[in-house]
Amino acid sequence: MKTVLITGAASGLGRALALRFAREGADICIADINAEGSQETLNLVRQAGGQGWVHELDVRSEIQWLQLQDAVQQRWGRIDVVINNAGVATGDRIDAGEWAWWEWVIDINIKGVALGCRTFTPMMKKAETGHFINVASLAGLMKAPSMASYNATKAAVVAISETMHFELMPYGIGVTALCPGFFRTNLDHSMKTSDPDMLKFVDKVFEASALNADDIAEAAYQAMLKNQMICNPHSVGRRAYFVKKYLPFLYRRGVLKMAYGLKKREQQRQSAAQVQQQESAS
């Protein structure tokens, strides 16, 4: 029976990943800061044919990661799969939003992944087996305007994963960076942005996505079996990355068109705000 640890498993993609491994009869540690959601996931895992347990975890805390390591050692004595899934979203122009949001997204999206990898690599090295799945994003491969902080964190997750993929291969350990594009999930519920149109845009593309969390979880599972370094599950994402890599002039044209559109929208918003201010003053 495989032992699988998943962060951010109380909902969304983390829950879908837990259920995918549950169908294989895995024993799953549901590690999340959301105790109620974690218990719901555990109930679903058991219904799907797996086993599991809940451990409250703030991925930003090294102390809590070490406590989880102790719990895993006592309960399992080994670890087969670690999925660093916990993540948050931000969306703003470089000069907008609060600096605290940068610190928030960096702490969770980068430090949380790095701590998970650092904590459990020694256990896998000792066993000379295991696999990490680090959830990045298509944003880690392709950087759209108005998402600098989020893009930076997901690009860092890709960099960490690529480094580990080769570093740990001699020890029999696999590493996959999961890079989905937009899909129907609850990531936008906690998204921080000062742009009132950003959430509307995100909701729109979420609803238009042909894939859901279960589809992404299945792609991640298959990528793990093949020990793929990068898993880009969306066909549109794979085409876009191909264009960026092999037809850069087309990629540049598309991104610049998006950037000029964002500038126009920002100017319209500023003009509307000035008119409203003048009307209020008169």
Salient structural properties:
282 residues; alpha/beta; Rossmann fold; 7-stranded parallel beta sheet; 9 helices; 7 strands; globular
What does this structure look like?
The protein has 282 residues and is an alpha/beta fold. The chain has two domains: 3-235, 3-Layer(aba) Sandwich (Rossmann fold), CATH 3.40.50.720; 247-282. Helix content is 57%, strand content 12%. It is built from nine helices and seven strands. It has helices at 12-22, 35-47, 62-75, 99-127, 148-168, 196-208, 213-226, 235-246, 248-281, and strands spanning 3-7, 27-32, 51-56, 81-84, 130-135, 173-178, 230-231. The chain has a seven-stranded parallel β-sheet with strand order 3-2-1-4-5-6-7, with helices on both faces. Helix 1 (12-22) crosses helix 7 and helix 8 (235-246) crosses helix 9. The longest helix has 34 residues, at 248-281. It is globular and about 70 Å long. The N and C termini lie far apart (72 Å).
The CATH topology of the largest domain, please?
Rossmann fold
* Rg, alpha carbons: 20 Å
Distance between the termini: 72 Å
Structural class: alpha/beta
Write the layout of secondary structure elements.
Elements: E1 3-7, H1 12-22, E2 27-32, H2 35-47, E3 51-56, H3 62-75, E4 81-84, H4 99-127, E5 130-135, H5 148-168, E6 173-178, H6 196-208, H7 213-226, E7 230-231, H8 235-246, H9 248-281
Helix pairs in contact: 1-2, 1-7, 3-4, 4-5, 8-9
Summarize this entry quickly:
The protein is an alpha/beta fold.
